[in-house]
Design a protein that fits this description.
Blueprint (H helix, E strand, L loop, with lengths): L1 H45 L3 H53 L1
């Protein structure tokens, strides 16, 4: 039974890590969609000219990069969750096999 508790504990750790990654991905996505867009909009109203246009392009690239990173982080969380579920199932199967050999 101790082995099963360890397996469950490790599984919960992986689930928590995947959940935290999803939370971080969501925060990054919100930053990209809301906060950066708001800053860009405010800056467009307050600043004009060639330098402003160049700076806006850089901000847009930063916004796009942030959204891409959020997507990558979300996919990593999904992959971690899938791997954790698969590993958990394998560990339980192996534990049952080991227990049946012992009895």
């Amino acid at each position: 039974m101790q082995a099963e508790k360890m397996i469950q504990m490790e599984y919960r750790k992986a689930l928590n890590a995947a959940e935290r990654l999803q939370e971080l991905a969501g925060q990054l996505q919100r930053i990209s969609e809301v906060e950066m867009e708001s800053r860009i909009s405010d800056l467009k109203k307050a600043w004009t000219g060639p330098a402003a246009e160049q700076y806006m392009k850089k901000l847009f690239l930063g916004k796009t990069g942030t959204a891409e990173k959020a997507g990558a982080l979300s996919r990593a969380a999904d992959a971690l969750l899938t791997a954790a579920k698969r590993q958990y199932a394998i560990e339980l199967i192996n534990l049952k096999k080991a227990e049946s050999r012992e009895s």
